[in-house]
Every structure is written in C-alpha cells, then in structure tokens.
Amino acid sequence: MSTKSIMIVGVGGQGTLLASRILGNLAIEKGYDVKVSEVHGMSQRGGSVVTYVKYGEKVHSPVICQGEADIIISFEELEALRWLPYLKKGGKLITNVQQIMPMPVIIGAAEYPRDILETLQKEEVDLVSVNALEIAESILNSKVTNVVLLGVLAKYLEFDKQDWVDAVLSTVPEKFREANEKAFLAGYEQ
Amino acid sequence: MSKRLMIGNEAVARGLYEAGVKVVSSYPGTPSTEITEFVARYNEVDAEWAANEKVAMEVAIGAAISGARSFCAMKHVGLNVAADPLFTVSYTGVNGGLVIGVADDPGMHSSQNEQDSRNYANAAKVTMLEPADSTECKEYAKLAYEISEQFDTPVLLRLTTRIAHSQSIVEECDRVDVPLKEYQKDVMKYVMMPGMAKKRRLVIEDRKDKLVEYAETSGINKMEINDTKIGIITAGAPYQYAKESFPEASYLKLGMLWPLPVDLIKEFASKVEKLYVLEELDPYIENHIKAMGIEVHGKDTFSKFGEFSNVSVREAISGKKDEVTYPDYNPPMRPPVMCPGCPHRGMFYVLSKLKLVVSGDIGCYTLGAAAPLSAMDTTICMGASISAAHGISKANPELSKKTVAVIGDSTFIHSGMTGLASTAYNKGTSTVIILDNSITGMTGHQQNPTTGKTLKGEPTVAVNLEKFAEAVGYSRIKVVDPFNVEECERVIKEEISVEEPSLIIARRPCVLLKGVKYDFDVNIQKDKCRNCKMCMKIGCPAISLVNGVPQINKTLCTNCGLCKNICKFDAITL
Known about the structure:
The complex is a heterodimer of chains A (about 190) and B (about 575).
Chain A lengths: L3 E8 L4 H14 L3 E6 L9 E9 L12 E6 L2 H7 L3 E10 L6 H4 L9 H7 L3 E5 L1 H8 L5 H10 L6 H11 L5 H12 L2
Parallel strand pairs in A: 1-4, 4-5, 5-6
Antiparallel strand pairs in A: 1-3, 2-3
Helix pairs in contact in A: 1-6, 1-7, 5-6, 5-8, 6-8, 7-8
Chain B lengths: L2 E5 H11 L4 E4 L6 H7 L6 E4 L3 H13 L4 E6 H6 L1 H10 L5 E7 L13 H7 L2 E3 L4 H18 L3 E6 H4 L1 E6 L15 H4 L3 H24 L4 E3 L2 E8 L1 H10 L3 E5 L2 E3 L4 H9 L2 E5 L5 H8 L18 H9 L25 H10 L3 E3 L24 H12 L1 H4 L2 E6 H17 L5 E6 L28 H7 L4 E5 L4 H13 L4 E6 L15 E2 L18 E4 L2 E4 L9 H5 L5 E2 L1
Parallel strand pairs in B: 2-3, 2-4, 4-5, 5-7, 6-7, 10-11, 10-13, 14-15, 15-16, 16-18, 17-18
Antiparallel strand pairs in B: 1-8, 6-12, 9-11, 19-22, 20-21
Helix pairs in contact in B: 1-2, 1-7, 3-5, 11-14, 15-20, 16-18
C-alpha cells in the first residue's frame, strides 16, 4: 500500500501526543513501517501543536507537507482551519467543535474567525465534526477528549475495532482503562 | 529482541545503554533533553544533571580519562558553553570512550539562534557522526564508542530537532558490559601545557588522516547508485526528505560529517550527471566539495536557513511549485504562552505595570516578552540578564534606575552565579530578580541544584540562593511571593532606587509540579464586575472576553487566584 499520512493537530496541553502514540503502536503491530513526528518544547506551552503519523511499507520522511495529509484530526476549530492547506484534495477533516481563544484574540489584537465549520464545508472538504468535549465530560472529564476523537478517527482507518481497543488499553494507565475504553467506543459510534 | 517506536533521543539513550556507558552528565536543552532523561532509567548508568554544559562535558571527560565509557548531551547553544573543554579534549584524547551528543535546531522551534554545530567538529578537529532516523541514532551511538576508543578521540553525535523528536522503529539489543580501562598517569597526554600541547597537535593531524581513511572505507558513508541523472550528497533528516521526493535518484548518504571523505565524493560525482548537496543550515559539505574543485549545486538551489521538508526539496530540484489543494485563511496565530497558574505571571504583571527595562534570560519566563505583559527588553543567552543589567548600569545611569534583570533558578545556577559575583565585586548597583519556581521549566521539568533532588529523584543538598548572594557580597536580599503583586511592586521600587546591588527572589513553585494544587474555586461575580478589564492585563489564557465581558474558562483555569489579587472591585472570589 502507499503510505498513509495522518495529522493530529490542536493546542498544547490537549493530549494530542497520546493519540499519536496509540495509532503508532497499532500500525507497528500490524507490521507497517511507522514514523511519528512532533515538536516538543516551547510550542507545547499553549501554542499550536501538530503531530505527523505516517505508516506504510517504507516511510522515509517523518513530516507531512502542504497537500499531503490523507486525514487531519483537529482538537480545536481554529486549528482545523490553520492546517487545512495540509489536506489532500478531497481528504478527510475531522474536527472537535471546541474553541480555545489564542492570546492575540484574548488581548483584542485579532478576531476568532466566525463560522469555521461553514467555511470548511464550502471548501468541499470531507468534513466530520463532533463535540468530543461534551462526550468526554459525560463519561469522565475533559481529559478523555483525545480518546473520543481517536475513536472517531478509527472508523476511517483499516484496523479492526478490537485491535484499536487493545491498543488504547495497553497505552493508558490502568486506573483510567475503563473510562478510556468508553470514550473510544463513544467516538467510534459517532 | 523487541521492536518499538522510539524518538531519536530515546534511541540514543538505548544505544548508550547497550554500549556499556557508565557515566552521563548533561544540562537540559530542547531538543536534546530526553536523551539524558531516558538513559537515567537504566540502573547501570550513573546519570546526572550538571550545573551547565561545560561542567557536564568536564564530568564526562574525567570519567573517560579514568577509564569508563561516558557521555554528555546538550543543545547547539550549550556547545558554545562547553566549547572550552571541547577544543582541548581533542588534544588529550580519551581512555574510555567519550561521546558528546549535540542537538541543532534548524528552523528555531525552541532556540534563540540557528547555529550549525558541524562547524565545531571542523574547528575542534573532533569526529562527528549524524544519524538519519532512530535506528541509526542507536547504531551510531554505539559505533561512536568504537571510533572514540580506536582513534583515541572524543566523538560528536549530531542530531537535529526532526531526528531527535521523530519516532521510528528500533530493535533493542542487550547491554555489553565494558570493564573500566586501566588508568595510567600520562602527563604528556593529559596535562596540556604548551610543551605537551605542541606534541599533541601533531597527533591530531595524524589522527585526522586515519579518520579520513575510515570515512572512505568503513561503509558509514554509503553510495546508493540508481538513476544517475541526479546525484544527491546528503545526511540526517534531509536524506529522508530527498528519498521521499526522489526515490529513483542516486545518493551518497554521509553518516560521518567530520572528517569528510575525498575519494568517495570524487567517485560519486563522476557517476552522476547533475550533482546536488542537500544540507540544512550552513554550506558545510558544499564548501568541502567546492574546495575539491567539483561542480555542485547547494545553496544556489536550497535555502540557506530553516528546516527543509519533502516539498521544499522537491520544489527546489524540480523548479516547480506543488499544486495548492486548499487556500490558507491566515487564521490568528497561536503563539506559546505562560500556562494558566504560572507563578511568573504575577511578577511580569508588576514589571509591565512599572514599565521597567527588563534584562531577560532563557526559560519559560522569556514568554513574558509577549503581549499583553510585554515586559522584556533583551534576551541573549543563558545568564546574560545579570551581566547585561550590570553593563547597562555602568553605561547609562538614567536607564539603570529603571532596569532589572530577571532569571530563573536553573538558569541562575547555569551561568547567573558568575554574573552576580562579578556585579557585586565591580561595585554594581543593579537589581536582580531570581524567578525561583523550584524546577527547570521550559525543557519539561528537570531537577537542578536548587531543587534538592537529583535526576534519579534521590534527595540531595539544595543551593541556598540567599546565602550564595550574601557570600558574594550582596547585603540587600528580599524574598517575595510573585502572586502578592502589591508586595512585589513595593519591594521592586525600593530596590531599584538604592545605589547598591540588590537581589529579589520571587519564590512560588511551577503550577505543573506534582503536589501544586490550588483548592479554590475562582469565579467572577457578575454583580460586582464593572468590566474594567484589569484582569485581562495579566494575559491569562483562562480569562477571555465573552460578549465583551471577562469570563473564566473553567477547563483551563487552575484556580491559582492571581486574578483575584488584580481585581480592584473584589469581583473575583476564591
């Protein structure tokens, strides 16, 4: 198969790294070559963060460039808009409907764009929007939002549901296993 | 043997473990930090955080001379700090193997400059290896010890951000226990006075010749001959970008960056029609090839700065822009910010309010330079805050009256202590503020000599900052809580007005530390809020205007209560 390129984007602190770890581990289990890339450090302090996950027979470059992503999964609306140019024409864009104000908006130097979802729809993107935060809070708390979103993503990849559940369970701490499994399944059934 | 995903830094750590390394001493710095954090998990390795990179390298040098395989890690700018020992350990050589990990940051994801460490290898005449994925990170770390011991040389292991922080598959092997090599006193080799150094200088030249031979023949620099229309000489992450964009091209992939081969490059150049050298940052390999009189395309085709990618390489070589799939809406930027609950915020609010000139430093608090706090005038390098503030006070008495230096606890230990001693000694009058949040924050929470804990989490002695300042000649030393903004304002005003050197220690732990929890429930009382927007001036990500009125985002809020101390109408309650 040709390499699958998936981008996980969001705001520093939203738990995008865990989602990439679970997906990466699952792809290895299935015998693929895998590369995962993210930038640690300064940008993690509430900045815009991006993780690239690529798997296939042989993966060289760890990065995904403009127009190369098969799927983008965004933890926040503004970030979905920011990373849109990285999506392949007709690619799938999954976004959480949560909005987190960036500092330039908070201090009045910029405006948070209105109607992001409508804008994305007009671009003829294969758009899936989900209120993952609400689902997460109904299960445990906002901390499992990332696994809800992973559940949504899982539907559009070729791995079996049970393999996903196993990958989630083997990655999260024991005392949160039940909540994370529920969160994953809730996302999967969206 | 298990196979799993590892970031390059973890793979280096695994390589150190498998190579039988005994001593590791480092100073944290993105993107190098995780090497030392991962290697500290192995009981067989004695790993520690040193006060700075120079100390770290000297510890590793001592360990190597005494017979053990040893290692130190740092980011590119850390190698500037450790450059002094680097240049001379090249003369002495080693006993047990010595490897120095250095991580460059093309594109400056987390750095104040974009320097290219390969120039250090050339200048100090120290062998340098550069891996291109996590598998090579582990393999090259092990190979570096063989080279170090075979050629009696320190070895630089160069990473870049994209290699250090990308995960790829690594197969684990067992550790080889390497016994201590016998130590023998050898003044001619290890005491670098002029007489001895002159003799060792010759040894370096002889060693270089042997290393060039190794670079030509050992296989670490590999030719891949495919379609010969295009030939690309490259190393590290750019090799991966090129392989993805031009899988059919021919390659000379370099694993050893100093010394560079000569015959191998000539042979490769003769086999291909058009020769490119693909390297981020400086034209380091390009200059070497051009000095050989070979025609090659390098910085005339590719960028002189920043990080490359699959697309940037493809576009540069093909001369054609990729098709745009979706438009860029140029959404508002989302720069990094101080976390909600950050103890630095209170102090920066006061510095901003007093409109002081702030001589800044390197750490989380550098984010105090951003709006709305905007309370920083300079940031140069680790420790510069204190010395530069002293320089300002010597040069410009008017400016001096409204200048303070701000520096974190770890940065103070790294290279602020010397500046403080120098300021008192030279009859300085500047005011220094140590932002003591009990941890090395920006690099992701590392212990340091002020925290009372070692890298391995064991309790140990802690530097007493107050006593240190007293010992170097400070008599005005105040400790404040950065969330008590009234006290901070009063003390700062007092201290900048006196004609004496003074130290203010703003002490409150980082909100992300385990055990730091605020048991309040911070709310804005709508009936009392007069919408003066004072609370917006602290730049807390958890407070934003909703329909023109400040509102607390309960998901982000840490209930630290700083905003309550700012509100003049008691509209914010705990």
